[in-house]
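FIELD: query
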Amino acid sequence: MSANRKSKPSGNRKQGNSAKSNFAKKPTSNSGKRVDKRPDIQKKSKEVLPKFSEEVRLNKYIANLGICSRREADVLIAAGVVSVNGEIVTEMGYKVKPTDVVQYDGESVRPEKKRYLLINKPKDFVSSNNDPWGRRSIMALAAKAVKERVVPIDKLDKESSGLLLLTNDNDLNLKLSSSSVKLNQLFHVTLKSAVTEEHLAKLTEEGIFMDNGKVTFEEATPVAGKKNYEIGVRIKSTNFKIIKRLFEKLGYEVERLDRLEYGPLTKKDLPRGNYRLLTEQEVAFLKMC
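FIELD: result
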């Protein structure tokens, strides 16, 4: 598919990072072969977990085990029920190394391996375990992939599909859920009625006033041959729900959202309903967002 409309230029966007490039043919070299200028991070590989190489405060280490909160961990440390390498530690702010042996109440404890699972969510799957209507859940797919309990960073609704990231890394979850993070996302949006060129310009250039001020899409490019019913929309936000709200503000009903890109992650080599673990490089990119 190719785009039939250019969106406004932006001085702070990198080349190749546009909705248009994802709905158009890839460039070719002189030899006629396709060229993909994006970093080669999507090829399937053996599982590589991020290395736990930094020292961590003891209270955070304990809290990450799910035993208690950090504040409650401080109480346990002060009470003398936590030891490191056989020595009781009561010092607030004490840091542990990856090789240290931590014991709580006489039992050795170690944090779970951090898991980062990418699922290409099918339509009509919910993103939670406890569904009162017993509908199919992506959590059943996650249970097949990893033994650790992972949760989705943002829950796509039942009608939406596409990339969904699940993890047991609470720090990354909090980071990517923050409204201050400008995460690059690309969606294929299907509307129930055709959007006008004027409204597309308003969405990308003029902006629309919402609760927190004026909001614009980075790009909004119609899909060729779809008569403006299907739009490639790029946003720089962790809140994908803003897409529906902006279209609704202009009188359009969104029939379906399909997430094609989530930060550095794409649907390349990941068919609908399939999943894979992230590479160490991909995790590092997400932590730098």
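FIELD: remark
The chain has a mean pLDDT of 82.
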